[in-house]
C-alpha cells in the first residue's frame, strides 16, 4: 500500500495514514527513574509521482490548554539536516528522501514530566499536479507515578500523625497504638515495594543476599546511598567463589537489562592510583577479576570499580565515579549497582 492516493480536489489533504508511524519508548516516564525516552517517526516510501517534502515532529503538553509546539523538522530543501526548532535538549537524528523511506528521531536522557504529552509526526508531500498533501500519526507519552513514592508518602504522613498524637494527646494512647500498627504494616509494604520494584534479589550466600538495581544512577554516591537504605553497602568481592556466585547474577541481569553498560561495586583507588580498597570494610582488594587491559584510568578520572558482562564472561573495569560528568546525555553509560545486605 502506498502513502497517498490521488485526490480529485485542488486543495490540500490532511489525514491520518498507517504509513506514517510514530512510536515512543517507553510509553510512560517517571521523573528521576526513567533513563531514556526515544520518539521516532518513520515515513514509508511514497507512491509513484508523490514527493516527500518534509517531516515535522511536535508535542501537545498534557497540562493546561497549551498549543502544540513544533520540536524538530527535516526537509529535502536543506540537505536533509534535522533542525532543532524548540531548542530541545534531546539528541536528534534523521534522514529524508523524496521518493524513499525517511525518518526523524529524538532521544531524551533522564526525561521529566516536561517531556510528556501527545507527540505528532506530520509528513508533508506534493503530487505531480502540485497539490499539497499531509499525513500524520500520534503517540501519547504519559507520566508514571511510582508505587514506591505512594507508599513512602503514606508512611511519612502516618508517622507525623503518630508523633503529633503522642506529644499532644496522651489520653489517646489507644489511637496512637493503632496508628503505629498501621504505620508498621505500611513500612513492611514499602520494604516489599523497594525489594520487588527497584531491585532483583539473589538467594542467600554466606549469610548475605545481593540486590541488583533495576534502575540506573549517575554515580557512586547515589549507589552507596541506595544500598544504605536497603541496610547494606556496595558489594565487596573477597574471593573467586564469591565472584563465581556474583558472575551468575550479572549474567542473569544482562539478559533482563541489555542496555546496562556497567554495574558498580564497592571498591575505589581514589586515595592512591592503583591501590584499590573496599570502601565499606576499609580493607585492601586482594582478589581481582580485571578485564584484559584494565585498570587503565582513562583521562585520570576512573577511580571506581565496575563489573561488565560480555559474551559469556563477567569481568572488572575501572570507571568514573560520577557518570554525570559526561556532557552529552546520550553518551552516558547505563550504570547499575550491586548491594550486599546481611541476610
Automatic annotation (TrEMBL):
The keyword Transmembrane helix does not apply. Keywords: Lectin. Residues 205-322 form the C-type lectin domain. Pfam families: Lectin_C. The keyword Transmembrane helix does not apply. One of its GO terms (molecular function) is carbohydrate binding. InterPro entries: C-type_lectin-like, C-type_lectin-like/link_sf, CLec_Tetranectin-domain, CTDL_fold. PANTHER family: C-TYPE LECTIN DOMAIN FAMILY 4 MEMBER M-LIKE (PTHR22799:SF6), TETRANECTIN-RELATED (PTHR22799). This is C-type lectin. The lineage of its organism: Eukaryota, Metazoa, Spiralia, Lophotrochozoa, Mollusca.
